[in-house]
Amino acid sequence: MLRRKNNMSPIEIKDGSDDRKYFTIVPNFILNHSSANDQSLYLQMKRIAGDGGTCEAGYRYFTKQLHIGFKAYQKSIEYLLEHNWIEFVGQKRVMTSGGRQSLNIYKVNNIWSTNNQYYGGGAKSNHLDGRGGAENKKRVVPKITQGGAESEHKNNCEEELKEDETEKCKKNKKTPREQMEKGLKQFLEKKQ
User: Fold this and answer.
1) Do residues 105 and 43 share a domain?
2) Among residues 101, 120, 139, which one ends one of the domains?
3) Looking at CB atoms within 10 Å, which of 71, 86, 92, 103 has the fewest?
4) How many domains is the chain partitioned into structurally?
5) What distance in Å separates the CA atoms of residue 52 and residue 137, rounded to the nearest whole number?
6) Could you tell me the residue range of the domain that residue 74 belongs to?
């Protein structure tokens, strides 16, 4: 939203090109600092809100869409609100098949500057918790998880292992094949 000089009323510009109609962009900060439910709920809310809009959908829609229960939905809403990624705007009365009901309306906040600062190395995180982040003021370095796509780390470990094995072989003056044969022989002797 742009503001005119002298703080006059804001000028709102909407992109009518529809080139972003079929995808939603989510900051990596959301993906790396929240649970799967939080991420999914945020994504759905951002999709519904569109550019600069509000999210007007009931909890039944989200629980059905995300395949989660009401408690999980409520926990994620609280998490998103607590971190100021969304904000409660108000309520709206709508007619449903079950009669008139109140619908909470949320605005998806712009956190791109936080995302860019964090990944650009400029910000120090101090508001993360155990649900996906860490409670320290340094940038979080993700842990290596089993089965993950951390190929560079895996390759480094394999190289270190190979170097260690080579050093052991040099000390014992045996080739890796000779060591393997010796180990196999010992195994078979114990088995008998």
Assistant:
1) yes
2) 120
3) 71
4) 2
5) 31
6) 20-120
Residue 125 domain-assigned (yes or no): no
Q: Tens of pLDDT along the chain (192 residues)?
A: 455 555 556 666 666 666 666 788 889 999 999 999 999 999 999 998 886 688 888 888 999 999 999 999 999 999 999 999 999 999 988 887 778 888 899 999 999 888 898 888 754 544 444 444 444 444 344 444 444 444 444 444 455 555 555 555 555 566 666 766 777 787 778 766
Encoded tokens for 146: 């089993």
Residue type, 142: P
Cα separations (Å) of 62 from 19, 45, 137? 26, 9, 33
Contact residues for 149 (Cβ-Cβ < 8 A; gap 6+): none
Identify the H or E element spanning 170.
helix 151-172
Q: Is residue 122 within 8 Å of 79, Cβ to Cβ?
A: no
93 with 42, same domain? yes
